[in-house]
């Protein structure tokens, strides 16, 4: 009679198999991490540009419909735009950098969260020392003296850049300098329609 062979199951991996699998995973990670970081940076600037342009549109619409001054500026004037932005209504125009706390008659409408440190914000206004967009009761971005106020918010993360341009009428337009080199360069005029 044949002797019955007992089969033993071997559970686990050999050291060689484990080293090969870990090497393959490490090789994939070396190529995937930079691509993932690049994707995150691109999506971050796109989302923040969309969010800011939507807030500008809301400010313009509220000022026109409510017939009040609406201000859009950094939450913290000392930290600037990376601290996030606040949108609020007030009865009088304000053009210098505004504090987070609106006055007693002001109504806070929207506050964005602080931005991540890997994202750079630069706001260039048509007037010196103005870090707040103020929308007059007719919906145009104006200063206290009635002169036009426009500017460009540059959002940069890694090699990805988006510009949010606010024209003289107060409307926002998002552009990508890498795709539109003629009208969306960082040195182009901020007063485009």
Key words describing this protein structure:
193 residues; 1 helix; elongated; 4-stranded antiparallel beta sheet; alpha+beta
Task: Tell me the layout of helices and strands.
Layout lengths: L14 H52 L2 E8 L3 E11 L16 E5 L8 E6 L7 E3 L15 E7 L2 E7 L5 E4 L18
Antiparallel strand pairs: 1-2, 1-5, 2-3, 4-6, 6-7, 7-8
Describe this structure as you would to a colleague:
This protein is α+β, with helices and mostly antiparallel strands and 193 residues long. It has a domain at 22-67 and 116-175. It contains 1 helix and 8 strands. The chain has one helix at residues 15-66; strands at 69-76, 80-90, 107-111, 120-125, 133-135, 151-157, 160-166, 172-175. A 4-stranded antiparallel β-sheet has the order 3-2-1-5, with helices on one face. It has a 4-stranded antiparallel β-sheet with strand order 4-6-7-8, with helices on one face. The protein is elongated and about 85 Å long. The termini are far apart.
Low-confidence stretches: 97-101, 188-193
Radius of gyration: 26 Å
State the secondary-structure class.
alpha+beta
What number is the mean pLDDT?
78
Global shape: elongated
Question: What would you say about this model in short?
Answer:
This protein is of the alpha+beta class and 193 residues long. It is built from one helix and eight strands; from the N terminus they run αββββββββ.
């Amino acid at each position: 009679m044949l002797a019955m062979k007992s089969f033993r199951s071997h559970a686990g991996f050999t050291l060689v198999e484990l080293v090969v699998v870990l090497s393959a995973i490490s090789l994939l990670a070396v190529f995937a991490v930079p691509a993932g970081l690049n994707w995150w940076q691109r999506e971050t600037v796109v989302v923040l540009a969309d969010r800011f342009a939507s807030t500008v549109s809301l400010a313009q619409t509220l000022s026109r419909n409510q017939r009040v001054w609406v201000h859009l500026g950094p939450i913290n004037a000392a930290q600037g735009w990376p601290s996030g932005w606040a949108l609020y209504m007030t009865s009088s125009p304000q053009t210098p950098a505004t504090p987070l706390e609106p006055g007693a008659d002001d109504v806070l409408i929207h506050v964005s969260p602080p931005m991540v440190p890997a994202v750079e914000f630069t706001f260039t206004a048509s007037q010196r020392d103005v870090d707040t967009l103020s929308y007059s009761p007719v919906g145009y971005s104006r200063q206290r003296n009635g002169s036009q106020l426009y500017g460009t918010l540059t959002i940069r993360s890694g090699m990805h850049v988006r510009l949010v341009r606010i024209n003289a009428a107060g409307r926002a337009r998002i552009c990508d300098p890498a795709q539109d080199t003629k009208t969306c360069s960082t040195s182009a005029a901020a007063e485009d329609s």
